[in-house]
Sequence to fold (704 residues):
Amino acid sequence: MFRIIKKSLKIGVVTGRYQRAERPTIPVTPEATERSRLFKRSLAIREVDTGSCNACEMEMNALLNPVYDAERFGIHIAASPRHADALVVTGPVTINMEGALKDVYKQTPDPKIVIALGDCAINCGLFKGSYAVTGPVDRHVPVDMSISGCPPRPAEILAALSELREDDATAER
Amino acid sequence: MPETRSYDNALKMAFPSIVQVGGTPHRAYSRFLVPKDLLSTITRYLHTQPDLRGRLTLLWASDHRPTREAYEIHYLFTLEASHHWVVLSIELADTDRLFPSITSHIHAAQWYEREIRDMFGLIPEGHPDLRRLVRHEHWPQGTHPLKKDFHWNHVLERQQGEYRFRHIEGEGVFEVPVGPIHAGIIEPGHFRFFVAGEPIMQLELRHFWKHRGVEKLFEQLTLIDAVLLAERVSGDTTVGHALAYCQAVETLLDIQVPRRAKYLRSLFLELERLYNHLGDIGAMCNDTAYSLAHAHCGRMKERVMQLNDRLVGSRFLRGVMQVGGVSWDVDRKELSNIAQELTDIQKDFSEVGAIIFANASLTDRLETTGVLTEQIAWDHAVMGVVGRASGRDCDLRRDRPFAAYDELPVNVALYRYGDVRARLRVRGDEIHESIRLIREICSRIPDGPLASEPSKLGTPGDWTLAAVEGWRGEILYMVMAGEDGRIQRCKVRDPSFVNWPAIQWAVLGNIIPDFPLINKSFNLSYAGNDL
Ligand code: SF4
Fold:
C-alpha cells in the first residue's frame, strides 16, 4: 500500500502533458455545432471500426489515458450504441462491415451525431477503389463532422471535439 | 552452410522424385518442386521427423496467368533445429483446380487452405471444413479476388446466405454470440461461445469483417511505393510490416542496406515493441479491473509515443522506412536523449512492475487462466509472444537475424505455463530487453549513409520471402516482381493469422468473463488478420 501511494505521489499529475493541437484542418460546420448543443456537457461516444488499420482505434483509446483524460471534458465511451450520443467511425467501410454500420446507426437513439475519424473514414485513403471497400462513411450514413489525419493525434481529436462543442470547459487552457 | 546442404540432401534421398530449384545464394531458403500426389507424404515427413520438426510458417498460392496457364501453391516450413527454411511448391496446370489438403496432419494449414479457396477458387481436397473464411456469405458465388481475371475495383453484387456455426446441442447448453461490434474500443470480430453452466465448451471465431483487399491493392502499386500500404496493414505494427516488406524488395532488387540504416531500423522496431507491450500490460490489468496499473502503463506508453512523435514526427513511426534504408535520421543528441528517457522509463516500469506482481488478487486472476499448452501451440504453429509464453522458443531476431540483430544478440524471454500470467511476464521481460537493446543501439550505431538507391526494376516473375520479428511475432512477406517495377503478387502474413485459431483452445474450460482477459493477453490484430 505504502509503495502504491509513494509511486502516485512521485509521479504526480500527468494530465495535460501533451502538445496542444492547432485548430482542426476540416472546420466544424455550424449545423454540426447546432446538433451537438444538447451534448455540450456530456457526450457519450460509441466507436465503430469499419475496417481501419487500428491506429485510429489506438488514438481513440489514448484519449482515455491519464495524459489526455477526455473524461474531464465529459466525453465518455458508451458500451452500446443504444447509450450513445455520437458515433465515431474509423476506417473505410468494408463490404463485410457495411451492414453492421447501418445497424449501429439505426440502433443509436436520436438525436445523434456521426463523426468520421481519420482519412480512411473521410475518403477511404489508400484503400479507395478496392473491391472490398464500399466507400467512405458518408456514403452509408450521414456524417456531421470529420477529423482528418492518418491517424489524427489524440490532441487533434480533443481540439476538434472542443471546437464542436464550443464549450469553455473543453477549451484548452 | 554445409549443414543446410545436408538437410537438403536428406530430403532428396528420402524422396528422389522431388526437384530442387532456385539456388541464388542470397535467397535464404531451399526450394523443391513436388509432385502433387507426394505432397501429403513429404509435408508429414517434414513436420514429424524428429531431427527436422518442420513448422508450417506460410502457405500461399499465386496465379500465373496470362503468362502461363497455371497456379502455384507454396508451403514454407521452418526447421526447428536449424531455423532453416524449406519451400515446397506444387503446380496446378491447365484446368486443374484441386490440391491436396494437409490440414488433417498439419493443423496450422487450416485457415491458409480455406483462404486459398476463397481467394483463388482452388479446392483443398479432403479439408474437413470447407465453409467460407474471408468471403462472407453475401458475396456472390464464383468471386475469387486474387485471380488475375478479377479486377481490383470490381463492384461486388450481393446474395443471400448464412454462415453456419458448429453447434453443440443439449440440455443446459447456451449459445452466446459476441460481436462484431464490441463494448470497448476494439476492432470488429465475432465470437460464438457455447457454455454449459459457467465453463466455455466451445468457441468459434468468425473474422474477416475488416477485409479491405490489401493483397490485391499491392498488385496495383510499384515495388517502391507500396511501403505506404505495408505501413497500413496493421497500424500498431507499422514498422514491423514496413520493414518486412522493404527487406523482401531489397532482396529482389539486390540492394545492400547501409549499416547505419540497419541500426536505425532495429531502433524503430524496438520502440514499436516497447509502446505496444507497455500498453498491453496495462490493458491486461484493466481487464482484471486493476485500473491503477492500467493508468500507469497508459502513461508510460504515451510517453514512448510522444518520444516517437518528437523523433520522427509520427506517433506510430510512420514514414521512416523506405526501400533501401530509412528516410529519417536520428542525430547524436537525440540518441543520447532517447537513452536518457528510456532509463527513466525503465526505472518507472520496474516500480510499477513491483506493484503489479505484489498484488495477490491480480495474480490469482492471471494464473492458470487461458492456458495454451505447448503441444497445442506447436500443432498450430503458434509463435511470437504467445508462443514464447507456452514454451515455444522462437524469436527471429535471434534465429534468423535481420536489420542490426546480427550484431545485437537478443536474450529471448521464455515461459512454459502458457497462461495469462506467462504472457504478461514475457511482455515484461521483453520491455527490459528492448530498452537494453535500444541503449546498445544508441551507443554502437555507426555513421554513414541512410539509404541505397535501387538500380534496377526487378525481373518479372522473380519472388522472395522476408521475415521480421514484430512485437506480436513473425511477420512474413512474399513479394513477386511484375512488369515495369510493379508488384505481381504480394502475400502478407501477420502473426495474428496464425495465432487467432489457437485462442479457441486457450479458452476451453474458462468462464466467459475471463475471455476479454485471455483475448487481451493474446492481443491479436484484426486488421492484420483480415487484410
Ligand atoms: S486513416 Fe490512417 S490510421 Fe486511420 S485507419 Fe486509415 S490508414 Fe489507419
Observations:
- Chain A has one domain: 27-172.
- The two ends of chain A are 34 Å apart (CA to CA).
